[in-house]
Amino acid sequence: MNRLRLWLRVLVTLVVIVAAVWLVWHGRDLAPQRPVVPPSTATEARDAAGTSSVVPSVQRPVRAPSAATAGPAAAASGIGTPPRALPEPGPGVKSPAAPQTSLVMEPARPFDSAFIRLGPLEVASLPEAVRFDYPMGSQNAALTYNAQPFRITRHLGDDLNGIGGENSDLGDAVFAAGTGRVVYAGVPGAGWGNMIILAHRVQEAGAPGGFAVYQTLYAHLEKSLVRPDQLVTRGEQIGTVGTAGGQYFAHLHFEVRAGPYVNPGVGYADTPLNRLSPEKFIDEHRGAPVDQLNQAPHP
Ligand SMILES: [Zn+2]
Predict the structure, then answer these.
(1) Residue 85 shares a structural domain with residue 127
(2) Would you say residue 153 lies in a domain?
(3) DSSP code for 232
(4) Is 152 found in the same domain as 249?
(5) How far is the CA of 203 from the centre of ligand 1 (A)?
(6) pLDDT tens-digit readout, 181-231
């Protein structure tokens, strides 16, 4: 009898031990999983978990890297908002961050950090431009016409076009309107195509130090022949007339801007911003009347 009781006790003890071990191993799975999600995002995590069968886990990429590099403008547009919490992937899966980078599309940045305000030293080191000419040759040479003058519609520049129309001027030379320094050479956006911006120091009564900064801008170029920081002289070829990658009939979008801020900005606006009429500016800075001819050489 004692022996039977002893066996029963051993059996009960074994059952208790096995039950305890099972509970220890599987008890975690039975417990509620709320603590793995921060309280503030618990609701969203549950929402995501509820639809996880149709929503791939990579649908909500972590955008922190782009928020860090895209700057305040991106943040203002909502690009930099924190990602929603991902559903907890379950035990054994390390981190949801791994597959997310490949699908992140970097937003188009508003403009490159290369766009700057020229400092006093940079302004002082700009070559002085004492005279400006038209960038595709004089109007009197009858090679070009102004297809869309400044402020016709909301246009912020002149569209200089070959007199043959359409693509007749494709590849024609574009010249620096004045002596200056290249402060931008690149493609700031699809609508602009290849763009060059030159900065010029121009003597002007009433300006601080007697000099003002003006910029000339050349866009839609087929070829750009200069690099940033390069010095160019008036009449030097800096590029060729293009179509901005086939978007327009070939023409030169030409702007003149006042001030030291270098930024591609926009080609159309309700107000002129810091843009000046290129025709008027060049007429005022040619150093000679437009119709003045060179003197005949002495015999
Ligand atoms: Zn234009």
Answers:
(1) no
(2) yes
(3) E
(4) yes
(5) 28
(6) 999 999 998 899 999 999 999 999 999 889 999 999 999 999 999 999 999
Half-sphere exposure in the Cβ direction for 93 (13 Å, CA): 11
Amino acid at 254: F
- What is d(CA 183, CA 218) in angstroms, rounded to the nearest whole number? 12
Least confident of 14-18, 65-69, 103-107, 124-128: 65-69
The pLDDT confidence band at residue 24, using thresholds 50, 70 and 90, is low
Give the model's pLDDT for residue 276: 96
In a domain, 270, yes or no: yes
Instruction: Answer with the one of 68, 103, 138 that is the final residue of a domain.
Output: 103
Is residue 70 domain-shared with residue 207, that is, in the same domain?
no
Q: Please tell me the distance between residue 244's alpha carbon and the centre of ligand 1 in angstroms.
A: 11
User: How many domains are there within the chain?
Assistant: 2
Ligand 1 centre to CA of 254 (Å) is 7
Whether residue 293 lies inside any domain: the answer is no
The SS3 assignment for 36 reads helix
CA 198 to ligand 1 centroid distance, Å: 17
Do residue 254 and residue 183 come from a single domain?
yes
Considering the domain boundaries, does residue 4 fall inside one?
Answer: no
On whether both 177 and 78 belong to a single domain, the answer is no
Tokens of 105: 């599309």
How far, in Å, is the centroid of ligand 1 from the Cα of 50?
52
Residue whose pair of structure tokens reads 């991106």 in the numeric block: 74
CATH number for position 199: 2.70.70.10
- Per-residue pLDDT reduced to its tens digit, 164-178: 889 999 999 999 999
Place of tokens 């150093």: 287
Q: By C-alpha distance, which of 142, 261, 124, 143 is closest to 201?
A: 124
pTM (2 decimals)?
A: 0.60
- 200-227: b or e for each residue (b if 16 or more CB lie within 10 Å)? bbbeeeeeeeeebbbbbbbbbbbebbbe
